[in-house]
Protein backbone atom coordinates (compact mmCIF):
# COMPACT_ATOMS: atom_id res chain seq x y z
CA UNK A 1 0.00 0.00 0.00
CA UNK A 2 0.86 3.63 -0.20
CA UNK A 3 0.54 6.00 2.71
CA UNK A 4 0.90 9.75 2.22
CA UNK A 5 0.46 11.50 5.54
CA UNK A 6 -0.03 15.24 5.55
CA UNK A 7 2.63 16.71 7.83
CA UNK A 8 0.40 18.92 9.95
CA UNK A 9 -2.56 16.54 9.82
CA UNK A 10 -4.89 18.96 8.07
CA UNK A 11 -6.92 17.62 5.19
CA UNK A 12 -7.20 21.19 3.92
CA UNK A 13 -3.53 20.89 2.94
CA UNK A 14 -3.96 17.55 1.15
CA UNK A 15 -3.43 18.04 -2.58
CA UNK A 16 -5.57 16.30 -5.15
CA UNK A 17 -2.43 14.53 -6.40
CA UNK A 18 -1.70 13.18 -2.90
CA UNK A 19 -5.33 12.09 -2.55
CA UNK A 20 -5.37 10.36 -5.94
CA UNK A 21 -2.01 8.60 -5.56
CA UNK A 22 -3.16 6.85 -2.38
CA UNK A 23 -6.64 6.05 -3.75
CA UNK A 24 -5.09 4.64 -6.94
CA UNK A 25 -2.80 2.22 -5.09
CA UNK A 26 -4.92 1.28 -2.08
CA UNK A 27 -8.44 1.19 -3.55
CA UNK A 28 -8.26 1.12 -7.34
CA UNK A 29 -5.41 -1.41 -7.20
CA UNK A 30 -7.46 -3.72 -4.99
CA UNK A 31 -10.45 -3.34 -7.30
CA UNK A 32 -8.42 -4.17 -10.42
CA UNK A 33 -6.75 -7.22 -8.83
CA UNK A 34 -10.00 -8.54 -7.36
CA UNK A 35 -11.86 -8.01 -10.62
CA UNK A 36 -9.30 -9.95 -12.64
CA UNK A 37 -8.98 -12.80 -10.13
CA UNK A 38 -12.76 -13.11 -9.79
CA UNK A 39 -13.26 -13.14 -13.58
CA UNK A 40 -10.65 -15.88 -13.98
CA UNK A 41 -12.13 -17.93 -11.12
CA UNK A 42 -15.62 -17.66 -12.64
CA UNK A 43 -14.31 -18.57 -16.10
CA UNK A 44 -12.51 -21.64 -14.72
CA UNK A 45 -15.44 -22.52 -12.43
CA UNK A 46 -12.95 -22.41 -9.57
CA UNK A 47 -14.25 -21.96 -6.05
CA UNK A 48 -12.05 -20.39 -3.41
CA UNK A 49 -11.34 -17.23 -1.52
CA UNK A 50 -10.13 -13.73 -2.25
CA UNK A 51 -8.64 -11.93 0.73
CA UNK A 52 -8.16 -8.18 0.67
CA UNK A 53 -6.05 -6.14 3.06
CA UNK A 54 -7.76 -3.17 4.67
CA UNK A 55 -6.59 -1.38 7.82
CA UNK A 56 -7.93 -0.24 11.16
CA UNK A 57 -7.25 3.24 9.75
CA UNK A 58 -10.49 2.79 7.81
CA UNK A 59 -12.25 4.17 10.90
CA UNK A 60 -10.47 7.50 10.38
CA UNK A 61 -7.05 8.72 11.40
CA UNK A 62 -5.93 12.33 11.62
CA UNK A 63 -3.62 13.22 8.75
CA UNK A 64 -4.66 10.19 6.72
CA UNK A 65 -7.86 11.25 4.99
CA UNK A 66 -6.86 9.61 1.71
CA UNK A 67 -5.55 6.39 3.28
CA UNK A 68 -8.52 6.04 5.64
CA UNK A 69 -10.96 6.59 2.78
CA UNK A 70 -9.19 4.03 0.60
CA UNK A 71 -9.10 1.37 3.32
CA UNK A 72 -12.76 2.02 4.21
CA UNK A 73 -13.53 1.57 0.52
CA UNK A 74 -11.68 -1.75 0.47
CA UNK A 75 -13.70 -2.96 3.47
CA UNK A 76 -17.02 -1.91 1.91
CA UNK A 77 -16.14 -3.37 -1.48
CA UNK A 78 -15.06 -6.63 0.15
CA UNK A 79 -18.53 -7.07 1.67
CA UNK A 80 -20.19 -6.20 -1.65
CA UNK A 81 -17.99 -8.60 -3.61
CA UNK A 82 -18.64 -11.38 -1.08
CA UNK A 83 -22.35 -11.04 -1.79
CA UNK A 84 -21.89 -10.80 -5.56
CA UNK A 85 -19.48 -13.72 -5.90
CA UNK A 86 -21.04 -16.15 -3.40
CA UNK A 87 -23.21 -17.70 -6.13
CA UNK A 88 -20.00 -18.85 -7.84
CA UNK A 89 -18.63 -20.41 -4.66
CA UNK A 90 -16.14 -17.58 -4.24
CA UNK A 91 -15.67 -16.17 -0.76
CA UNK A 92 -14.33 -12.65 -0.27
CA UNK A 93 -13.04 -11.44 3.07
CA UNK A 94 -10.48 -9.05 4.43
CA UNK A 95 -7.89 -8.49 7.10
CA UNK A 96 -7.51 -5.10 8.79
CA UNK A 97 -4.14 -4.89 10.53
CA UNK A 98 -3.33 -2.33 13.17
CA UNK A 99 0.26 -1.26 13.81
CA UNK A 100 2.56 -3.98 12.49
CA UNK A 101 6.34 -4.36 12.75
CA UNK A 102 7.47 -3.40 9.24
CA UNK A 103 10.31 -1.49 7.62
CA UNK A 104 8.07 1.58 7.67
CA UNK A 105 7.35 1.41 11.42
CA UNK A 106 10.99 0.45 12.04
CA UNK A 107 12.12 3.73 10.49
CA UNK A 108 9.97 5.85 12.81
CA UNK A 109 11.48 8.10 15.46
CA UNK A 110 11.76 6.16 18.75
CA UNK A 111 9.54 8.67 20.59
CA UNK A 112 6.79 8.35 17.98
CA UNK A 113 7.06 4.56 18.00
CA UNK A 114 6.82 4.47 21.81
CA UNK A 115 3.76 6.74 21.77
CA UNK A 116 2.10 4.57 19.16
CA UNK A 117 2.90 1.31 20.96
CA UNK A 118 1.72 2.63 24.32
CA UNK A 119 -1.72 3.30 22.79
CA UNK A 120 -2.13 -0.41 21.99
CA UNK A 121 -3.75 -2.27 24.91
CA UNK A 122 -1.43 -5.27 24.33
CA UNK A 123 1.52 -2.81 24.46
CA UNK A 124 3.18 -4.15 21.34
CA UNK A 125 2.86 -4.02 17.60
CA UNK A 126 1.64 -6.98 15.64
CA UNK A 127 4.01 -9.13 13.64
CA UNK A 128 3.79 -10.02 9.94
CA UNK A 129 3.44 -13.72 10.82
CA UNK A 130 0.31 -12.87 12.83
CA UNK A 131 -1.21 -11.31 9.72
CA UNK A 132 -0.28 -14.45 7.78
CA UNK A 133 -1.99 -16.61 10.42
CA UNK A 134 -5.17 -14.53 10.11
CA UNK A 135 -5.16 -15.03 6.34
CA UNK A 136 -4.67 -18.77 6.87
CA UNK A 137 -7.61 -18.80 9.30
CA UNK A 138 -9.86 -17.24 6.66
CA UNK A 139 -8.64 -19.65 3.98
CA UNK A 140 -9.24 -22.67 6.22
CA UNK A 141 -12.75 -21.57 7.27
CA UNK A 142 -15.10 -22.18 4.33
CA UNK A 143 -17.91 -20.25 6.01
CA UNK A 144 -15.93 -17.05 6.56
CA UNK A 145 -16.98 -14.51 3.95
CA UNK A 146 -18.04 -10.89 3.76
CA UNK A 147 -16.24 -9.92 6.94
CA UNK A 148 -13.12 -8.00 7.88
CA UNK A 149 -10.92 -9.63 10.52
CA UNK A 150 -9.23 -6.98 12.65
CA UNK A 151 -5.78 -7.61 14.13
CA UNK A 152 -5.08 -4.58 16.25
CA UNK A 153 -4.09 -5.62 19.76
CA UNK A 154 -7.51 -4.42 21.03
CA UNK A 155 -7.07 -0.83 19.82
CA UNK A 156 -10.61 -0.54 18.46
CA UNK A 157 -12.55 -2.19 21.28
Molecular structure report:
This protein has 157 residues and is mainly α. It has a single domain (11-151), classed as Rossmann fold, CATH 3.40.50. The chain contains five helices and three strands; from the N terminus they run αβαβαααβ. It has a three-stranded parallel beta sheet with strand order 1-2-3, sandwiched between helices. α2 (65-85) links the parallel β1 and β2. α1 runs parallel beside α2 (65-85). The longest helix is centred in the first third of the chain and has 28 residues, at 16-43. It is globular, with a radius of gyration of 17 Å.
Summarize the structure.
This protein has five helices and three strands, in the order αβαβαααβ. With about 160 residues, the protein is mainly alpha-helical.
Total helices: the number is 5
Q: Name the shape in a single word.
A: globular
Whole-angstrom Rg = 17 Å
Helix share bin = 40-55%
Query: N-to-C terminal Cα separation, in Å?
Result: 25 Å
Order of helices and strands: HEHEHHHE
Please state the structural category. mainly alpha
Could you state the CATH homologous superfamily?
NAD(P)-binding Rossmann-like Domain
Low-confidence stretches: none
β-sheet strand percentage: 5-15%
**Reading side by side through the largest sheet, how are the strands ordered?**
1-2-3
What is the tally of beta strands?
3
Structural domain tally: 1
- Characterize the main sheet: 3 strands, parallel
CATH topology: Rossmann fold
Family: Belongs to the short-chain dehydrogenases/reductases (SDR) family.
EC number: 1.3.1.58
GO molecular function: 2,3-dihydroxy-2,3-dihydro-p-cumate dehydrogenase activity; oxidoreductase activity, acting on the CH-OH group of donors, NAD or NADP as acceptor
Keywords: Oxidoreductase
